[in-house]
What we know:
- This protein is about 40% helix and about 15% strand.
- By secondary structure, it is of the alpha/beta class.
- Mean pLDDT is about 90; it is low at about 1-15.
Amino acid sequence: MKSKTGQPTVAAPANLANNRAAWLRGAEAVCSLTPSPSKNPQRLILLGAPGVGKGTQADLLHQWCGACHLSTGDIFRGAKNLPPDERSPAMEKALGFMVRGELVPDQTVLDVVCERVGCLRCLGGFLLDGFPRTVAQAEALEQLLAKEQLPLTAVLDYDLPLEQIVARLAGRRVCASCNLISHITGHEPEICPQCGGKLYQREDDRPQAIRVRMEAYRRSTTPLTEFYGKRGLLLTIPADGTPAEILQRTMDALAKRHAHGNGGDQAV
């Protein structure tokens, strides 16, 4: 399959097994493989509500352009499993807030990212996911990238109507025995396909809870999309259809942006 520009949709690099150690464990760690240098590295921020398939798109974009998926959520989830002597002061501070059930403050998140600025300098580019989440974080990241002379390529905002998100997430089930996540689409038995255990629906996957979460996401993200829209960096990508179709839209939007001189807030 080719894009409208005639380029192949996926050209998988040889470094798919990169363990992103420098991102997950800190600057002193060494990644298992280094992304191949690119003449035009893609430096992208990924936005999108839970359920839009952003993680799948990050994997496909990585296969296409070689840029690593840099998720701050992955850092925080993995930090508690690191030995204390491998945690930086910023990571320890972030863990303290998380253990208390508090939001990690903007400055602490920024400190964690700054510790990994080498990942942002990577010649293969980056796919930044989970940061920034607020305008304050976006302004701090803008200053950091300007200092490092690393211009953003674009901000990809994956968009899906609320009812489609509700349908996706409401069909999600978790196995009580092995924790496998499955998706049901009809009246099939709610039995785990992996171990035969009983599937259950998490409270936050119930339709009303999903709508509450989506409204909170919309309120928190609207100022961020407005921030990047004013800077001509925002590309809104419809997230309906197959993963390949969504990837194609993303690639075409990036090609169009490049052809038009990187200007303007666009919707595909």
